[in-house]
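Protocol step 4 of 5: obtain the predicted structure for the target chain.
Materials: sequence only (see below). No template structures provided, no constraints applied. The aim of this step is simply to have a reference model before the mutagenesis design in step 5. Sequence pasted as it appears in the construct record:
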Amino acid sequence: MHRKDEVYRQGIVVEHNTPAAAKGGSCIFMHIWRSNSTPTDGCTAMDPQNIKHLLDWLDPQKNPLLVQMPVAQYELYKERWKLPER
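Step 4 output (structure tokens):
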């Protein structure tokens, strides 16, 4: 993943559809955003400090699970699923 801008300078590959196979679903990436108002082509993009925080926190040996949802659903499930504070 090479681009002229810096959005892939730091990132996380979410192991969905790996190895990538046609019609197996999208590959998913988390990376630095161009700005907080610029959309992506389906990735999750964020401020460089937030991606650094995730990279420091993630431990691949613990088999992390990515769950993304609207805030209302997060609040609904946070106690039942023992989710961390946002």
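Step 4 remarks: The chain has two helices and three strands. The longest strand covers residues 28-32.
Proceed to step 5.
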